[in-house]
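Q: My labmate handed me this sequence with no annotations at all. I'd like to see what the chain might look like in three dimensions before we decide whether it's worth expressing. Could you predict it?
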Amino acid sequence: MNKEKFSTINKENINIMVIEFYMGILFEDNDVTDIFKEKLGEDITTNLWQEHIVTLTNFWAMMTLKENLYQGSPIKAHFDLGLSKEMFITWLEMFYETIDSMYEEHLSQLFKDKANTIASNFMKILKL
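A: Here is what I predict for the chain of 128 residues:
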């Protein structure tokens, strides 16, 4: 049975999406998963993970709802992670899967467009 998809974007369902996305990442076996486990651990209930979830909820609320609660430098947080172009592609694929399963198509496309732009910019800045 298919679950009903979100027909609007709000901070509450962004938070649900962020949690679902990262819970999914923790069950994967790839280089992206390894980076998250190394930096944040394997238990999504820890304070470190919870802070990350709040940060990313605020980030996506800023990107989609124009809320100004996000404070940080997204590129700075990624400089010393040893990322590769392949990791960005893997991250995008996992993100798309989560977004497509949770939001109606026109809304999932909004997230995907923003994620593509962000990933492209990161790869240029990181010279990947």
